[in-house]
Specification:
Elements lengths: L19 E6 L2 E2 L8 E6 L3 E8 L4 E4 L13 E5 L9 E10 L14 E5 L27 E6 L12 H9 L11 E8 L1 H5 L2 H5 L13 E2 L5 E3 L1
Parallel strand pairs: 1-9
Antiparallel strand pairs: 1-12, 2-10, 3-4, 3-6, 4-5, 5-8, 6-7, 7-8, 9-10, 10-11
């Protein structure tokens, strides 16, 4: 199960589909122009720590769990139009960061949304476009449907985290490992919501208020995953 939970079928510049913008485990290298609405969210000192999607000229959507440790806007920037981590494209300083006021309520990772407003415009070009969001008429994805995910992140998993908190991070997000220097993409399969909710993973962490909600989508593809 990946950390960010918004999923849609295979994207293109002119349709109403968009992938998750997180980190990728066992993916393949993306080609230039594959996902021009994806951006890297960076710390001005330490570099990329999450991915996001361009909503319009001034706003980017990303995950609230990227900001669990509060980050002031003046140390956050957005890199658009680049496949390489911490290089290329155009850099846009953050002006304002708005974390969903119900993030983690009533359950861990629910309402996992953050908006970032940038100071200088994100103008559309062949390498930067605005993401097409789903509407109220968008069909719910059925079990077995293939979806696409893209992002920067680790290419291998880690083991032996030990305690509950570390184990949860390791199993759900795989936050450590060998990080990719390029944008990666993978194909995943939608897993039935009811079957996913009954998975042993959720049963083990009832004390942590971890629950699959209607704001999330599950995927199951052996050997492939997304991470926070």
């Amino acid at each position: 199960m990946g950390g960010q939970c918004y999923w849609f079928p295979k994207p293109s510049v002119n349709n109403n589909n968009s992938p998750k913008a997180g980190k990728i485990y066992n993916g393949e290298k993306a080609e230039s122009g594959d996902y021009p609405f994806l951006v890297a969210i960076e710390h001005t000192w330490f570099g990329q720590f999450c991915g996001g999607s361009v909503l319009n000229e001034y706003w980017v959507i990303t995950a609230a769990h990227c900001f669990i440790e509060e980050k002031a806007a003046d140390i956050v920037q957005v890199r658009a139009g680049s496949l390489e981590i911490d290089e290329g494209g155009t850099v846009h300083k953050a002006e304002k960061i708005i974390v969903h006021n119900k993030f983690g309520k009533p359950f861990l990772f629910d309402n996992d949304i953050t908006l970032i407003k940038v100071e200088n415009r994100l103008d559309e070009n062949p390498y930067v476009t605005f993401v097409n969001l789903p509407t109220s008429h968008t069909k719910i994805l059925k079990s077995g449907v293939k979806v696409y995910a893209a992002g920067w992140g680790i290419t291998s998993s880690v083991k032996n985290w030990g305690k509950l908190g570390d184990e949860l991070v390791s199993e759900s997000n795989r936050l450590s490992g060998v990080r990719s220097n390029f944008l990666l993409k993978i194909t995943l399969n939608i897993l039935d919501h009811n079957k996913c909710a009954k998975a042993d993973f959720f049963k083990r962490y009832t004390d942590a208020d971890l629950k699959l909600t209607n704001n999330m989508i599950c995927t199951l593809t052996i050997g492939k995953d997304t991470t926070a």
